[in-house]
Design brief:
- This is Glycosyl transferase family 2.
- By secondary structure, this protein is α/β, with parallel strands linked by helices.
- It has 2 domains: about 1-205, Spore Coat Polysaccharide Biosynthesis Protein SpsA, Chain A (Alpha-Beta Complex); about 215-335, no CATH class.
- It has 11 helices and 7 strands.
- A 7-stranded mixed β-sheet has the order 3-2-1-4-6-5-7, with helices on both faces.
- α1 links the parallel β1 and β2.
- The chain starts with a strand and ends with a helix.
Length: about 325
């Protein structure tokens, strides 16, 4: 087993963690210096003296990049027992790291997450951030998990090729990993760990605005694409309803036009894969989904507008809100 520790501008807690791990485990330790600079050379030299392999980025490239550097090294020179990633700021206990190494051996081809329970004193920024990403992940995949932002994660060695190909160089890398895992057949397993925040998490290099935007970017792109399609659908619905006074014809006509627009935008910008998706298959899947959503759309509109008497504009807005999350989850899971 290899313990991989990405590190940027660490302090003595990194060395303390290394020594504690050596006391309780014979796992090899790989540290990636993500461009910390000369000021931190002594700390990484101490890590080498403690028996660690240290890889160095000449400039800061981000946590995702540091993890991929470590994964690439392990797949070339490491063992086939798996890898556990831990942070360098002392917030992962050696005992919890060892629990993940055991879980990785027991659950091959799974992503093992060290799941914090967020009990006790948790900084407000961290509590809000974790709650938000849990909600976004659940909306995106339909699979709720407790801790989407944990840095303590374990992987089987045969997952390394995939781990090196996931897009993202900074904190968004770890969210992209969770989003892509279901589509490639990797299940998630959560192992409860202690929730530890030292000095109100001041050592964290997470930038609330810039890095949050990166983490949420896939979902934000979908919101933008769906928003433009919804505006088109809404305008066409009102126009066709005014022209025909037939709700079914109006729903079908507006949905057909907006769906073609939405498919092109989503395939090109939102769910685009590095190796591409076969157009024929994604078209068939997408418009099969469109048919399902069309029926749901008409059924809900008929219920709200014709049966309950809600004005058409309000009924349309309510219907689209109800179908939005379902559409995102279905497109990511089945279409692209």
């Amino acid at each position: 087993m290899t313990i991989l520790i990405p590190s940027y501008e660490p302090d003595s807690r990194l060395i303390a963690l290394i020594h504690k791990l050596h006391e309780v485990s014979d796992a090899s330790i790989l540290v990636v210096d993500d461009g910390s600079g000369e000021e931190y050379r002594a700390i990484f030299d101490s890590a080498k003296e403690a028996g660690c392999t240290v890889l160095t980025h000449s400039i800061n490239q981000g946590k995702g990049s540091a993890l991929k550097t470590g994964f690439d090294y392990i797949r070339q020179y490491g063992n086939d027992d798996g890898v556990v990633c831990a942070d360098s700021d002392g917030q992962h206990l050696p005992g919890d790291i060892l629990r993940l190494t055991k879980a990785v051996r027991e659950h091959r081809n799974h992503i093992v997450l060290g799941s914090r329970q967020f009990t006790g004193k948790v900084p407000l920024r961290s509590r809000i951030g974790n709650s938000a990403t849990r909600m976004v992940y659940t909306l995106a995949t339909g699979m709720p998990i407790q801790d989407t932002q944990t840095g303590l994660r374990g992987y089987s060695s045969d997952m390394l090729d995939w781990l090196c190909q996931i897009p993202g160089d900074r904190f968004e890398y770890e969210m992209n990993m969770l989003l892509e895992a279901p589509s490639v057949g990797y299940d998630l397993i959560e192992v409860p760990i202690d929730t530890i925040y030292l000095d109100d998490n001041k050592s964290s290099h997470f930038r609330p605005l810039a890095d949050s935007a990166r983490v949420y970017f896939p979902f934000l792109k979908f919101c933008a694409s769906s928003g433009f399609a919804a505006i088109l659908d809404f305008m066409l619905l009102l126009l066709l309803q005014w022209m025909t006074s037939n709700l079914l014809v109006s729903v079908i006509g507006s949905r057909l036009c907006s769906s073609i627009f939405n498919y092109v935008m989503n395939r090109k910008f939102v769910f685009a894969k590095r190796n591409g998706t076969v157009i024929r298959k994604s078209v068939l899947r997408y418009f099969s989904l469109v048919t399902v959503i069309l029926l749901l759309n008409y059924g809900l509109l008929h219920l709200f507008h014709d049966n309950i008497g809600i004005p058409l504009i309000a009924a349309k807005l309510l219907t689209e809100a109800l179908l939005f999350s379902f559409s995102y989850w279905a497109q990511r899971k089945f279409v692209y």
